[in-house]
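sry for the spam today, last one i promise. struct tokens for design, 442 residues
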């Protein structure tokens, strides 16, 4: 029989901390939803593995290494058996990619430095405390679907060129490049008295429904709260983000979204999770395993002309203070400057290749495939087809992040995710990682 242990800890940073997720510097002024780290430890025989889900944007190498080191010291669980995943909330903990740092904002920079050490210990201890709460339990897998809340954000236009986040209701839109993944896999864990303890849940959609300067885990926070209402306050939801590099909540057929859209999303996901769990089938096998491997992938090639244009943009366009910069070209000139700075910083501060992690966790017949980075929908489909069982969950932003990973046919200047700096890896990266993950299943 399995043993499972769950735990969650609040990790909400102090007010005034920088909020990641967009081009402009933001400092938190309020809390809509408390932020959490949530952990599950699984034991079978002498083998143990841990999954840690964090309300945050991007995993970073040094931070993940510090978390894993402390987990191993306190639990004995080795690095290859630890998955550190981020939910990708754009209104959560204050960590950012290089090149979008707070060098012009000393208050935000100091808040990050003071928070990282505490954060590392808190989230690592979440796993340690889950490990101390191991109890005999059964695992039950089911898969639902949720429609109407997630949409591909890249669209073919009448001019034949795909575009990211085109103007809503534009008559120039022909169709979306692909369909978002509507699946909602859930692994429900029950104790020996058949009481729900927690669950591992996955869904594919950017957690960027909420903007502004108020901290929240976005729809993931609502999902967790709703499941607690149904199963009890001790129930812990381990959320893993699916392949959603090209997916968000924008329905371009509508003029705008409701202000409480993230609440609607979370409640719909929770309702489907509860419904699906009722018919979930118990896993028959009890063996567990985890593999964590690193693949060397080249840095994306950037044409000389683009580099020269970026440097010229930086030299000639003056930055305007206080201007909101966004990918929908609210201020095209300032947006161009922001992207130029991102590209130049990327080229000046990164190596010619990266060692990227991929992880495969097996809990009985159930498999979690862990990509790093922000992966396009298509690669999740490739892995699921390669698995062939349907008893799986494909996760992203596990252990590290290298920007977006688009399909090879989506490298256009009009596609936000494929622009150098947004995308850091070679055009074949997604295919290489998907193939590797499929081969790792034992």
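last one done:
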């Amino acid at each position: 029989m399995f043993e499972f242990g769950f735990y969650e800890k609040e990790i909400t940073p102090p007010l005034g901390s920088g909020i990641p997720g967009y081009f402009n510097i933001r400092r938190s002024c309020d809390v809509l939803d408390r932020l959490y780290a949530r952990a599950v430890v699984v034991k079978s025989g002498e083998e143990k593995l841990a999954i840690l889900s964090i309300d945050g944007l991007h995993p970073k190498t040094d931070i993940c290494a510090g978390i894993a080191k402390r987990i191993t010291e306190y639990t004995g669980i080795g690095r290859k058996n630890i998955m550190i995943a981020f939910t990708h909330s754009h209104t959560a903990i204050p960590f950012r990619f290089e090149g979008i740092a707070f060098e012009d904002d000393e208050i935000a920079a100091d808040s990050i430095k003071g928070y990282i050490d505490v954060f590392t210990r808190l989230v690592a201890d979440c796993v340690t405390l889950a490990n101390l709460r191991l109890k005999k339990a059964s695992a039950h897998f089911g898969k639902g679907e949720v429609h109407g809340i997630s949409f591909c954000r890249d669209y073919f236009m009448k001019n034949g060129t795909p575009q990211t986040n085109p103007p809503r209701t534009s008559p120039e839109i022909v169709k979306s490049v692909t369909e978002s993944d509507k699946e909602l896999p859930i692994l429900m864990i029950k104790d020996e008295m058949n009481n729900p303890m927690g669950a591992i849940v996955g869904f594919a959609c950017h957690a960027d429904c909420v903007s502004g300067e108020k901290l929240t885990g976005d729809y993931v926070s609502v999902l967790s709260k709703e499941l607690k209402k149904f199963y009890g306050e001790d129930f812990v939801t381990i959320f893993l983000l699916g392949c959603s590099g090209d997916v968000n909540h924008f329905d371009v057929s509508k003029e705008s979204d409701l202000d409480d859209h993230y609440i609607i999303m979370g409640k719909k996901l929770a309702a489907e999770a509860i419904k699906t769990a009722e018919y979930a089938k118990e896993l028959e096998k009890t063996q567990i395993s985890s593999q964590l491997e690193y693949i060397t992938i080249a840095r994306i090639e950037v044409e000389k002309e683009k580099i020269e244009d970026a440097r010229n943009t930086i030299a000639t366009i003056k930055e305007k203070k206080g201007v909101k910069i966004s990918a929908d070209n609210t201020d095209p000139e300032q947006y161009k400057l922001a992207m130029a700075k991102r590209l130049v910083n990327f080229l000046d501060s990164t190596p010619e290749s990266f060692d990227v992690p991929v992880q495969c966790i097996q809990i009985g017949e159930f498999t979690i495939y862990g990509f790093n980075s922000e992966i396009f929908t298509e690669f999740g489909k490739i892995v699921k087809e390669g698995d062939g069982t349907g008893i799986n969950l494909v996760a992203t932003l596990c252990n590290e992040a290298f920007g977006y990973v688009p399909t090879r046919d989506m490298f256009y200047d009009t596609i936000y995710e494929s622009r150098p700096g947004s995308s850091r890896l070679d055009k074949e990266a997604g295919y290489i990682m998907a193939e590797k993950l499929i081969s790792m299943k034992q």
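The radius of gyration is 21 Å. ok im logging off now
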